[in-house]
Specification:
The protein is α/β, with parallel strands linked by helices and 379 residues long. The protein is 40% helix and 16% strand. It has a seven-stranded parallel sheet, sandwiched between helices. Helix 2 packs parallel to helix 3, helix 3 crosses helix 4 and helix 15 crosses helix 16. The longest helix is centred in the N-terminal third of the chain and has 15 residues. The radius of gyration is 24 Å and the shape is elongated. The protein binds adenosine-5'-diphosphate and magnesium ion (MG).
């Protein structure tokens, strides 16, 4: 979809063209009209999907005619890191001078001297800030948040992962009750859901997760019937003989996730688990290792898999089936891509067979089922 149909003025469109941005991304198509209409928005899409412009452009348009009075900023964007603060501020600056009313935007973050920031804050309409430094500036009365009309939480998942929950809570108490709230995140894990409930009022939800049912034709699916005691050995056999270098394995419980990862490691396959009983620090480490390719197998529960921002995985294995057909499609959806179809393999114990047939019916697809017990896994 081109930017023209999103209600953006010509001045913005030609600036976008200067950067060779001609087509709006999914999140931009969804969020730009929603923000322009002053609704609250929950925007979930992968890293690199263009979330920044999806709020920067409509906010600048909504702000035409607003002028900051005496250190009262009008738009506040909270971000987790100083790099991101600088980056987002730069995007605001690229576009703010093409509009009739010039808007002053500023980034503030910790780790540098506070005094220049205090001076520059005079007259700023848009503030892009990390939570800690912002609280310091509020305390010094260098900035007032009581007239904020738009609050943006960008990279909310990362903000929570870095432990900014308390600072965010403090800041939420300083902004007016009635305001527009925009929440963006690459993933929708538990914590983000909590913040969304607390912060957003009747939001428009723009989420890649529920808008794009994956095309299951692109995914090579098959299943093995197998007795429960042979699931572990069969899993190892498939990983080894299939030469799988990066594989996401799903289990239905925390206990099973740990158990499966342990057994894989004991058998010389580099594996780790991610689930809600692990500390946030441990989860972050495991994810980083998996993304970088250092960790070969990640064993996850459905809930935690929602926090994994990896767009494409070559292999997904259902060690146990998910409860709903929707979750099944969600799980395997990460492997389907036109140029590189992945594989989704399910290990089905006898008591899961009925459930698996229901999943296939809902998916309107018959999955090839092989006899896992017949495989000589010792070869
Ligand atoms: P996210 O916040 O979702 O991780 P960003 O907003 O940082 O993603 O954008 C990622 C990159 O994509 C940036 O370099 C940005 O300039 C570029 N980009 C944004 N929108 C478009 C578009 N419509 N077409 C092409 N590139 C875009
Ligand atoms: Mg971003």
């Amino acid at each position: 979809m081109s930017f023209n149909s999103l209600g953006l003025p010509e001045a913005i469109i030609s600036k976008l063209n200067e950067y060779n941005y001609t087509q709006a991304t999914f999140i931009q198509q969804q969020a730009i009209p929603a923000v322009l209409s002053k609704r609250d928005v929950l925007g979930i899409d992968h890293t690199g999907s263009g979330k920044t412009l999806s709020y920067v452009l409509p906010i600048l348009l909504n702000m035409q005619g607003c002028k900051a009075q005496n250190r009262h900023v009008i738009t506040l964007v909270l971000v987790p890191t100083r790099e991101l603060a600088a980056q987002v501020n730069e995007v605001f600056q690229q576009f703010c001078n093409v509009l009739p009313q010039r808007i002053k935007t500023l980034a503030v973050f910790g780790g540098v001297s506070i005094n220049p920031q205090m001076i520059q804050l005079q007259g700023a309409e848009v503030l892009v800030a990390t939570p800690g430094r912002l609280l310091e500036l509020v305390e010094q009365k260098a900035v007032h948040l009581s007239e904020i009309n738009t609050l943006v939480l960008d990279e909310a998942d990362k903000m929570l992962n870095l432990g900014f929950r308390d600072e965010m809570e403090q800041l939420f108490r300083l902004v007016p009750k009635v305001r527009q709230n925009l929440l963006f995140s690459a993933t929708m894990h538990e914590g983000v859901e909590g913040i969304a409930k607390q912060l957003l009022h009747k939001p428009i939800v723009a989420s890649i997760e529920n808008s794009n049912p994956p095309d299951t034709d692109l995914i090579k699916q098959y299943a093995y019937t197998v007795t429960p005691d042979k699931k572990g050995p069969l899993l190892r056999y498939l990983i080894k003989t299939g030469n799988m270098q990066q594989v996401l394995v799903f289990t239905s419980s925390v206990y099973q996730a740990d158990n499966v990862a342990d057994k894989l490691r004991k058998n010389g396959i580099d594996a780790d688990a991610i689930h809600s009983k692990k500390s946030q620090g441990a989860r972050t480490d495991v994810l980083r290792d998996f993304k970088s390719g250092k960790l070969r197998v990640l064993v996850a529960t459905d809930l935690l898999a929602r926090g994994i921002d990896i767009e494409f995985l070559p292999f997904v294995i259902n060690y146990e089936l998910p409860r709903s057909p929707k979750d099944y499609i969600h799980r395997i959806g990460r492997t389907g891509r036109a140029e590189n179809p992945g594989e989704a393999i399910s290990l089905i114990a006898h008591d899961e067979e009925h459930h698996f047939s229901i999943i296939q019916k809902k998916m309107k697809k018959v999955v090839e089922v092989k006899d896992g017990n017949a495989i000589n896994i010792n070869v």
